[in-house]
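Marked as duplicate of an earlier ticket. Keeping the data here for the record.
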Amino acid sequence: MGRRYDYDESRIGVRPNPKGNRPRTKDRPAHADAVIGMVTGVDRGRWTCLVEGQPVVAMRARELRRSPIVPGDRVGLVGDTSGADGSLARIVRIEERSTFLRRTADDTDPVERVLVANADQLAIVTALADPEPRPRMVDRCLVAAYDAGMHPLLVLTKSDLADPQEFLKSYAGLELSYVVTQVRDDGMIEGLGELHSALADRMTVLVGHSGVGKSTLVNVLVPGTDRAVGHVNAVTGRGRHTSTSAVALELPDGGWVIDTPGVRSFGLAHVDPDSFIDHFPELAAGTDDCPRGCTHDDEYCALDAWVDAGHAGTSGRARLESLRRLLRSRLGTEED
């Protein structure tokens, strides 16, 4: 009788490897044959990309599952790029971005959200009345534009309800580009020609809180778009969100506009507070006499004397208050 623990190698079972015997590797295919397209919209896990003028629906490759892909992105596509009904390509690569606009939910949220990519102009749409303008929101968008390396443009709507010059006084020191518009009784928009000129041959992002007339402008700029138009609540004075996702639209005379959903906050947690002063050029030179470690919001700050001496122009005090409001909000020391 053999010993109980004598084993024969032929009797040992080997568990099969369901994934095969090839060693795992982190190397990914280069996809040298990928065609380049531009993302124009996102809807429920599918991206619409424009490839040589043809819209192509695509999904995201597994290796990009944690990478945000947004309107304006230039991407590499493989698979069925014919654009035929029912076809589905695959996004395998995101090309290098020239710019990307970001925001956070608030000034303490560590998670930043990329809104659009490769735009060179940020059009900040704000109504002069109904709803009332929100200068602090405009300031935040300006800081985000400067941080992203984008050219800011103010688009003021409903000029028939308020004088635009009163609002523009606060920004005289920045020498901002702006366009003033209003919807006439016949449905036409005054100032449309100037707006077309400001948008021509550029990739422009439109941002603004709900109810300012952003979708109305888009529907006129790109006929047939049919972006939903909201209304301002008579009690709260706020607009209702109508656009639910960002979409890139080609202008008939050249250029692109990217319409984004209305926002009620524009967090700047991704922007270094020490860099805020760089986005207020009429104040930056006044910091030379600030003490070491100055936050630009304390009693020893040299900016007060700089502004009082008139070096920052007639809007210097208002701009200094804007800077300090942003700093306090960003640092969580004051509600915006």
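See parent ticket for discussion. The radius of gyration is 26 Å.
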